[in-house]
Amino acid sequence: MDSSFDNVIERAGESANAWSALGAQQATIRPVLAGDGPILQAFVRQLSPMSRYHRFHGGVSELSPELLKRLTTIDRRHEIALIATTSSFGREVGVGEARYSNEDADPDSREFAIVVADAWQGRGLGSKLLQRLISHAQSRNVRRLYGNVLAENASMLGLAREQGFALRHHPRDSHLVRVQRTLSTDSSRFQPLQPSE
Ligand SMILES: CC(C)(COP(=O)(O)OP(=O)(O)OC[C@H]1O[C@@H](n2cnc3c(N)ncnc32)[C@H](O)[C@@H]1OP(=O)(O)O)[C@@H](O)C(=O)NCCC(=O)NCCS
């Protein structure tokens, strides 16, 4: 990682955490920054159609300029967006992305979404990203974190169940499962991952 990358992370005001999958390359989890449009677009383009479908629930092959702007313009009072990156031939490339935002009239709830590059799936990165979202939400006194998951999406449903989310029918869409977790906001505070985790 070069020093300019370090500086960018510092300007974002939040720490970056390195994490290694067992026997694999190292990934760094850091906040999404305003200039991350190209890296996010490249990340989405290289996802398999199935992963894109599970993430966006539609036939998205790349991000529209509007969506790209939305995904890189973060209102840090109410939302967080994280990107996991690794170095490939000296370039920073995205291998995972996770966020929550308040899409709901309920000010105490946040909706999350998460996606991991196909080659990185099944190695624990999705768990790390979701844990980061949960810790961050707890630190901001968010009471409920929920996601709308396609009913066929066994991986995300398994991950959500493993992290203590309850699974319910979506109130309006029979193709979706609502995964929801009530957060304890009293004692838990944001704990950055340790590099060895
Ligand atoms: C869902 C997703 C984010 C999981 O990320 P991941 O990095 O593969 O997940 P992890 O390796 O951390 O796995 C964590 C847990 O999820 C569950 N899980 C993962 N893959 C699973 C599968 N195919 N079936 C059932 N459970 C599965 C398991 O409980 C697993 O724990 P274990 O490894 O101890 O068994 C990833 O598969 C993905 O990006 N899918 C496409 C996009 C998507 O579906 N996004 C959800 C929109 S909200």
Q: What does this protein structure show overall?
A:
The protein has 197 residues and is of the alpha+beta class. The protein has a single domain (3-182), classed as Aminopeptidase, CATH 3.40.630. 30% of the residues lie in helices and 28% in strands. It has an eight-stranded mixed β-sheet with strand order 1-2-3-4-5-6-8-7, sandwiched between helices. It starts with a helix and ends in a 15-residue tail after the last strand. The structure holds coenzyme A. Residues 51, 54-55, 113-116, 121-127, 147, 149, 153-156, 158-159, 162 line the site of coenzyme A.
Give the termini separation. Answer: 19 Å
Query: How many discrete domains?
Result: 1
- State the share of residues found in helices, binned by percent: 25-40%
Outline: globular
* Main β-sheet description: 8 strands, mixed
Radius of gyration: 16 Å
Beta-strand percentage range: 25-35%
CATH superfamily: Gcn5-related N-acetyltransferase (GNAT)
Low-confidence region ranges: 1-13, 190-197
Q: Quickly count the helices.
A: 6
Task: Identify the CATH architecture.
Answer: 3-Layer(aba) Sandwich
Which class best fits the helix and strand makeup? alpha+beta
* Spatial ordering of strands, largest sheet: 1-2-3-4-5-6-8-7
* Mean pLDDT score: 86
What is the name of the CATH class?
Answer: Alpha Beta
What is the total tally of β strands? 8
CATH topology: Aminopeptidase
**Structure ligands:** coenzyme A
Order of helices and strands: HEEHHHEEEHEHEE
